[in-house]
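chain below, 377 aa
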Amino acid sequence: MRKRILKPLVACIALASASVNAAWYEVTGVSTVLESKEQARERALEDAIYQALKFSGADIAGLTSIRPYLKEAKNDYLFSGDEIRHIQVLETKEKGGVMKLTARIDIYPTANACHKHQYKKGLVMGRFDIVSPQHAALGGIFQFGDDFTVLLQRQFETQAQSFVVQGITPYSISPTQPDVATMVAEDTGAQYLLVGTITDMTATIDQKVLRKDQTNRQLALSIDVIDGKSGEVIYQNIYRDIASWPFERHSKVDTKTARFWASPYGEMAQRMSRNILLDLESNLACRATTPEIVSINGQTGQINAGRIHGVKHGDELALWHNASFTDQYGIHRTQMKKSAIGLSVTRVYESSAEVAVSPVELGSSIQIGDLVTKYTQ
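prediction:
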């Protein structure tokens, strides 16, 4: 039986109704370029939920926890203990090779999400290298690693709730060289570093009897998130997907063009970058954001977090003294002690802020490198 290829569809959102504590969102989802109707439905529903979460201001990481349940094709999904309570699939249509799914999603945004009471965490990205350059020979896409890095950077800049990208470093960062990672983090003021490698871009030909052969291409990559203070890897993951490669075998493809990113392979790469964002939001959002004291002069000081991190005038901060030490075995042990000193933000700049010390007479005990956190009761 001949399978139909599903063409991409642009998503749109319409607010159906809202109350004080919850809102119903009626959403039209996206069907990506796939050969499986079941997978197309699942991806369209995922996209609809993601769009609704963004629109409502809820925690986008919530999609990660419910994603396994979306594999079951049904019209109603009920959840408890999450911002998403009810998903009702209203309509699923396929016309002209395009699948269109409309759903109503009941969302209860809460004030308890970590990104709502913490500053954004600074993130520096390393460029994604292609481990085997010969994998990029088809289409001559040897610059794909650089362009994917820029794509991921833009994904974080426009969609991240818990992170702010502080640039792409030109230095080669590896989990096996923690000293280089900590140096880059110190120079940029970043809390974390994200590095990745592209491990597979091989292509296979799906031979057809009655129509033109189809070329399918893999995309596999691994990522490591490194703590900028210790150089330790705090998160790892591997991603793999496959999509149709619609370009002529001997043509050179420019991976900076809209033509490439609108292709089945480009759309798959965009979906993978979004999954990386969602996984980091799900796994790292609730880790403490740790700006540092970078300058102190009696009753005033300065921290290395500012407007881009979400710092606002009047914010109250808690101070933590650095009491790290090296044990008898030569291992560096991190230890922080909360201080009775309070700080308040008096002036905010792009990536730094001035703070006032209270009580003033204790200002002399503050040292460069002491950490601050947004004050919570």
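Helices lie at 37-56, 62-66, 144-159, 178-188, 258-261, 264-284. The CA atoms of residues 268 and 288 lie 32 Å apart.
thats it, cya
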